[in-house]
Amino acid sequence: MLLAEADYSYNKDAGLPGTIKLGGWYDFGKFADQRFDVNHGLQAITGLDPLEHDGTYGLYGIIDQLVYRIPGEGDGRGISVFARVIGSPSDRNRIDAYFDTGVVFNGMMQRRPNDVFGIGFAYTGISDNASAFNRDAGLSVIRNHEPLLEISYTAEIVPGWTLQPDFQHIWNPGGNVPDETGTRAIKDATVLGARTTISF
Questions:
Q1: Which domain does 73 fall in, by range?
Q2: Residue 33 domain-assigned (yes or no)
Q3: Residue 159 maps to a domain
Q4: Distance separating alpha carbons of residues 96 and 26, to the nearest angstrom
Q5: What is the pTM of this model?
Q6: In total, how many domains does the chain have?
Q7: What region, left, alpha or beta, does residue 39 occupy, with left being phi > 0 and alpha being psi -120 to 50 degrees?
Q8: Whole-angstrom distance, CA of residue 174 vs CA of residue 72
Q9: What does the alpha-carbon distance between residue 48 and residue 37 come to, in Å, rounded to a whole number?
């Protein structure tokens, strides 16, 4: 596998710093087509082995930007935004698109300078070819996408100990997969969790 990335950072010493990254990868392995068979027919109908592709690749971009700095604070306290996007060929990848974005509020309360609040949204896209495979097979539930909303708060209990409750709501879990009946998609999911970290 080959990996390559270029990044550019700006305003590191003053103002509102940010970073932009562009990158990609290439995998030299063999990858099965998500829809067509070895004879370029519809695999869901023929049942033959899938067409094989030589290699796959992905391209991505990332931006991380501080948009507000608390006056007089030079340690990154303030509001920052981020976004990431990734794309891969849809013929040989079940997931061909991913995007996430969010806002992070770092140390916004004077009495709690080490607390962090964040809200984010993510989107995972099932490839058109994988969706078409389901349609070719006559399935009533077609894979498509999985959006996700996440809200978290990291609280410093004492220096060196943090507690992070987390809320997630997932639409179309698994990208719209069928339930045990095979005729309906599984329901949306809400996940509540917590993470604690002790540093010493």
A1: 2-28+58-198
A2: no
A3: yes
A4: 14
A5: 0.91
A6: 1
A7: alpha
A8: 45
A9: 6
